[in-house]
Every structure is written in structure tokens, then in C-alpha cells.
Amino acid sequence: MPDVIISLIDQKSLDSIMAMPIGLMIEGMxxxxxxxxxxxxxxxxxxxDVDLExxxxxxxxxxxxxxxxxxxxxxxxxxxxxxxxxxxxxxxSSAVEWRCWDARLFLxxxxxxxxxxxxxxxxxxxxxxxxxxxxLTSSDRSSFIExxxxxxxxxxxxxGETMDPSLDPRILPTMESHQIISGGLFDIxxxxxxxxxxxxxxxxxxxxxxxxxxxxxxEDIIR
Length: 223
Description:
Elements: E1 3-9, H1 11-18, H2 22-30, H3 49-61, H4 79-92, E2 94-101, H5 105-108, H6 126-136, H7 141-158, H8 171-195, E3 198-203, E4 212-213, E5 216-217
Antiparallel strand pairs: 1-2, 1-3, 3-4, 4-5
């Protein structure tokens, strides 16, 4: 099962790197001086500086048509490669990232909504996360985590599965996993709502054009 990925993007950081000529960006990443332009990280995690530097520099190195004196938007390169670079720049401008198996999101998100989620594809659209964010305003972190665990337990019991740890040693580790992941989800959605950061939505193996930044797909942001 692929992971759905939610990141919170600092608009100023993204605007800054997108306004930078590619050659200057290369220099900053090779010297590691550009790391200072990343937003302050928010726990628990985001993609590492060195990994993103490597991916960005490799993608640029593989494209001999890139003009070092032009910004990304002005590059005359294959559109898909331009979108891949934009997505990497978004990750560079991320303050925090949260990941979860797409199938697990039915357990974490759907109970808080007043409608049925039709498929995992729905979790790639901004609307469902806006609705979920609004629903969470009436809950606190502990209550939300507890509701997730109770719902998970009731689903197991309805399927005739035991909740006795002595009969199934996976129960306690799975419960702890649900608590950690749902707590992280609550935290990132609350940060999004309170701090005014942009939300980046996507999934592992999803083409760059189909990721959402705010209300727009990446393919609608750059040409």
C-alpha cells in the first residue's frame, strides 16, 4: 500500500527558491549554504537536506538543456521534468511531513466526516482535508486519538477478531501504531489550520503533475 503524504509548505521559502536562477541554486546546494533558506523544521520529521540536495542536483545534471541563468519557470525543458523540479522545491520548502498508508486513512479520517469516502483517491484532494480540519476543531488531541482506537477496536470485533493480546501478539503494537500516527495527523492538521502554511498533498509513485499545493495541482502552477 502506498503512503499518502501531507507536507506543510512555507510560501516565502518556496517563492524564494523559485525566483532563484538555477545556477545560483546549484551553487547553494553544492556548498550546502542554501540549507539556511529552508523553513524551521516542525517535529517530528521532514525530508532530509542531503537527500533533497542529491535528488535536485541529479535531476538538473541529467538535463543538459537547463539554462543556469534562468529560473525554473523560464526553463525550456520537458514539462514533466519541470514539474518534478517544482515538486522537489516544494519538499525543500516543507516544515513538516506526515505519511500514512492510504487504506488506513479510512480509519483516521472518515469517522470525523459527515459523508462516506468513496476511495483512496479522495485523500488526494484538498476538499476532504478542509472538511477534516473543520471537524477537528470540535475535538482535542487526546479525544481524537482515543476515538480512532475505539473505532479500530469496534471494527475488529465486528469482524469477529479477538482483542485479547495473549491470543494475538500484534494487537498492542498495532494499537500503539494507530495512536502515534493519528496523533501525528492531528498535529499536522492543527498546524495547517493555525499557522497558515500551504498544504502539499500527494502519494508515493504519483506523478508530479497530480500533486496538490493548496487548492491547485502543480500542473496549474507552472507552465
